[in-house]
From TrEMBL:
Pfam family name, one: DctQ
Database matches in PANTHER family: 2,3-DIKETO-L-GULONATE TRAP TRANSPORTER SMALL PERMEASE PROTEIN YIAM
Keyword field: Cell inner membrane, Cell membrane, Membrane, Transmembrane, Transmembrane helix, Transport
Organism annotation: Pseudomonas marincola
Record-stated family: Belongs to the TRAP transporter small permease family.
Residue ranges of domain Tripartite ATP-independent periplasmic transporters DctQ component in the record: 22-151
Top-level taxonomic group: Bacteria
Subunit structure: The complex comprises the extracytoplasmic solute receptor protein and the two transmembrane proteins.
Protein known as: TRAP transporter small permease protein
Length: 158
C-alpha cells in the first residue's frame, strides 16, 4: 500500500486557523450574551483566518490529489493522460502565478502606504502578505502532485 502524500504544515495551519476562529467566535457570542457588547476584533481576525484556512485547505487538497479537476477527459482519452496532466498543471501555475504576483504587489503597496485595517488599525500588510505566501505553497504542492501523477506514485483518482 502506497503512503498517501501529506501537507503537514498546511494541515496544521488550517487546523490552527479553524480552532482560533471557533474560540474567538464563541467568546464573542458569550460576551455579547452577558454584556450586550461584542469584541471589536473578532470579525477582522475571523475573515483573515478564514482566508488562511481556505488557502491552507486548498494546498492540502492539491497535495493529496483531492482538488477539483475534470477527470472525464483523462478517462475518455487515456492516451492523452500525460499531456492533460501537464495542461492541468500549466493552468494551475498560471492562476496561482497571478495570485502570487498580484497578491505580492498588493502586499507591497499596503506596506509602502502604511495602510491600516479599518477595525483595529493594524498594518494591512500583516493580513495581505499571506496571500502570495500561501499561493507559493499551493504552487509547490500542485507541482508535487502533478509530478507524482506523471511518475505513477499516486492514483489519478482521489
Amino acid at each position: 500500500m502506497k503512503k498517501q502524500p501529506d501537507a503537514r504544515f498546511e494541515r496544521a495551519l488550517a487546523t490552527l486557523a479553524l480552532v482560533i476562529i471557533s474560540l474567538i467566535s464563541l467568546a464573542n457570542v458569550v460576551v455579547r450574551y452577558f454584556t450586550n457588547a461584542s469584541f471589536a476584533f473578532t470579525e477582522e481576525f475571523s475573515v483573515f483566518l478564514l482566508v488562511i484556512l481556505t488557502f491552507a485547505g486548498a494546498s492540502v487538497a492539491l497535495r493529496s490529489n483531492r482538488h477539483i479537476r475534470i477527470g472525464m477527459l483523462e478517462r475518455m482519452f487515456p492516451r492523452l493522460r500525460t499531456p492533460l496532466i501537464i495542461v492541468q498543471w500549466l493552468a494551475a501555475v498560471l492562476v496561482l502565478g497571478l495570485v502570487v504576483a498580484y497578491g505580492g504587489q498588493f502586499a507591497w503597496e499596503e506596506f509602502q502606504w502604511d495602510s491600516e485595517s479599518p477595525g483595529l488599525g493594524l498594518p494591512n500588510w500583516w493580513y495581505v502578505i499571506w496571500l502570495p505566501l500561501l499561493g507559493l505553497l499551493m504552487l509547490w504542492r500542485v507541482t508535487q502532485m502533478s509530478l507524482d501523477r506523471l511518475r505513477g506514485r499516486i492514483s489519478d483518482e482521489p
